[in-house]
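User: These chains co-purify. Model them together.
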Amino acid sequence: MTLLNGLLAFGAAAFTVPLIIHLLHRSRYQTIEWGAMHLLQASKNFNSRRIQWQQLLLLLLRCSLPVLLALAMSRPLLQSFGGANGQAALSLVIIIDDSMSMFATSHLDEPNAKTLFSLACNSAAEILNKLPAGSNSLVLLGGAKAEALEGQIPDELSTKLKELASRAIPAGDFGLQESLRDSLAWLATSQNPRRQIIVLSDCQNHEWSAWNSDQASQLANEIAAQSVPPQISFVRVSPKEVDGPSKVSNLSVNSLDAAPSLLAVERDVTISTTIGNHGSEKCDNVMVSVLVNDTEIERQEIALAPASTTVIRTRWSPQQTGDHLIRAQLLRDDDLLSDNALTSAFVVQAPIPILLVDGDQRGEKMQSETDFLRLALSPFALLTGAKGDIFLSKTIPPNELNETILSNYRAVCLCNVREVNDVQQKALYNFVEKGNGLMVFLGDKVLSEQYQSWPTLAQKGLRIANFTKRSKNEPEKKNVAPPANPTSTETELGPSGRIKMQQIEFAPVRQLSSVSLSSLASVRFEYHCPIVLDPAALVNASDASTAMRFEDDQAWILESRIGKGRCLWVSSACDDDDSNLPTRTIYVPLMQKLAGFVCNADPPRTHLNASETWSRSMGGDATKSDSGNELLITKPDGKVVKSQLNGDGLFGFTETRLLGTYTGKMVGTKERLLACVTSQEYRSAKESRLAYLTADELTNLAGSCKASVATSASDLLANTVSEWNGREVWTWIWTALLFCFVAEIALEQSLSPRVKSKVAASSSLRGTIA
Amino acid sequence: MKAPLLRWLSPPDLSRVSHLQLLARGVVEGVSGGLHRSHHVGSSIEFKEHRPYVPGDETRTIDWKLFGKTDRLYIRQYEDETNLRCTVVIDQSGSMKYSGSRSNGMSKHEFAIRLAACLAYMLVNQQDAVGMATFDSKIRTYIPPRSRPNHLQTLLEAMADSKPGSETDLSVVLQGLLSHCKRRGLVFILSDCFGDAEAIVKSLALLRSNHQEIVVFQIWDDDELDFPFQTRTMFRSLELETHQMLVDPTGLRSVYIENLRAFRREFEQGCMRNRVDLISVKTSDSFSMALSNYIASRRSRG
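Assistant: Joint model of the two components:
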């Protein structure tokens, strides 16, 4: 047992007062010369032992009153007898919210804390320092995917937390439920009889209110199902005035996007930066700086109304290929500095060589089969002679197609090629299998019987479908009135002439803008070569699929995979012979997307959500390395970790919970891999609003999962540490004190002569005498 | 110095008892004429019965009128009326020395003396013979009953000499009293009757069987009835100096009261069984008033 106010315990010495009074009382007595000794002697013989016990009990009660009073006021802690030093070992999980809002600096009244996160870390360290001996603990950083600090020894964790307090890099959004579940899983393996979970968070509204009462109740049930249900405490590490109106002063860079998405050298890029004001006051003279690779390319002064956003657009033209970092930052201080800058990584690629095999070459302009396609793939080069094209295309006749020429290209387009001989087929198969792409456009020159004779995929060939003769799409027979414009072909063709726009799942098409997609609906196909996917031609059913369909469910585009490469079979020509596609807005982006799809030309993903796996191909660098396929990745907090490459030069990096820029390099090569991690909520600026749960809301939420709420870390420290070191038993002692007091009065009354009975006894005797 | 009578009895007490007349319930055996019926047949005017004449009877007792009517000789017998032989027995044991806070300084012994004086005064006034005995563990003083007026002086002087102080044993004393009370009479016992109630009752029964009418004035102090002590007290015996008891009266009180009731109940029942008049009086009351009340109730009962 420990006494929190030990000095007051000396008040227990007051028990001597009744004892002394009792002894004095015993030594002082009156003497009476008495006649009726025979009556007195009988009474004493009968009652003396009982009276002695009652007197002793009365003395005991009177002595215990000051002792209990002093004990109660000294706040004793009852400790378990099982633990070392009289304290019960404890298994403690501390969950620290390290999402962006925890790095706010507003309303802090702690002189040693720079941010709420540092305050939480310091508090957690202090709690760990006061754990009973023999305890083990786990510290979880709850932002994004919860991450545990290494170690279970409280002293070690405390040291790490003090170091961690200076961290300025936020993690993704706080996952309260996931963190609690991880905590329960860890506690389930614990051997200690007492278990507790402490959540240190600023209780951001959008993170905590998303956790509804049903989920809370479900969690409460999970907790109750534990063999030893842990005690849960929510601690608000947050500004003092959480219930009042929001008085935040915070601007943030909400998003940083570049258009178009495929960047090429000398191709103009529009960088859009969204700035938001989350405060209740207008902000003037806000300087916004946009930097590319640490070189400032734009600086603007803007003014922002309260609770408003504005977009700054900056034009930038990449001058070289490779990874580029674009950073937008606000040159001012506010309550949350972490959201004042945002960095995005972009990859500028070199033009991709693509070979066009023209099966219908003509002398007239825009009459050859590949003229439209070339224009779509390399518009800048053909129209202005400038750089900026993503694809570098070359057209050859079918007879020049061979293995040698294929080795210089990443993709081949067979455009209305009548037939392909066996050698060419074999060369194409090997070409695709290595990871390159093939697109086949079937036109009026195509000899369907020859295509039908190709070896199937199952036979190490290219064919995946059955080919039939090119057919004309018949007009639709309608009973309704003729359209207003009878010359339009759009109304003359049946379902086989229109693209099915519902449930498009083909990724290159889904990525197109809504304007382009709407123009796809107006494309009409007068002819096409019906192709039907042949399951017998496949090794696995997943090797090929119908990517796009006509409205009558006939295939327009079939997709197949051979080795690492991709093939696309298009049942129509790529010029305007079969359809009006080249005249539509979608043609250029569609062709570029299809070509990029078969080439695997999509830029590597550089924008990740927190905790999302970062996967990227190292390409040629992987083969140049002599370091055993080991990639060194530098995280936003400066730590360097190793990631192993697989045989294909790919890696998967999962430690992306921190928001910021990740760079990777092979040993001996130039640092070139970049990824920027943000969180969905960060981009929607929810974290930047600094809006917190009210005290009532937090209490209700805690009540639904049977957790307790502490108003501050210091309160928790005061209460929790006392609970660990022992249970405060002042209520028991006050109860005992009250009981002793009542018992003393009752005993005193029973021992002392009662007025009523005295009168009654005297009256009865007098009555008898009378 | 006051006259002995006035030392014990105040004028109001004297005036209160001077007109009282105590009559014996049964026949008594006096030596001179008086108020009380004698078991001897005499020449009083109170006719008792007719009895056949036997030789030896005085011829003047023959009822000649009845002889004229019946032609048989009968004699007329008349009740003799004689004086009363009273013995006032005063307890002068140590326990009678107790004087409580509510008795105006009057001890039970003083109360008994005054009551005895009152009785003697009253009985002498009605020309009855009054004797006296004082006792503690045995009879210390015995004055035989006399009916002379100056006998009162003798009694009062003996009362004045009575000093309470030693142990008592009422049952033994009553048995000893048998040798002094051989003729029918009335015995007043003025005592607190502390002791073995059963033994006392037996002794009373013995005395009663000796043709003695017995009236017991059991004298109490208020403190003995309600035991009002609260502080720690050393009770020292008034009869035996070595006997003392240090107790907390608050804890003992209820049992004491219960014991007291049992003792009184047993004694009362014993007295009732043996037709002994038991009058409980308290030292805080007026003894003359107590006496007058008793005599009034005795008359009403016949």
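Chain B touches chain A through 50 residues (CB under 8 Å).
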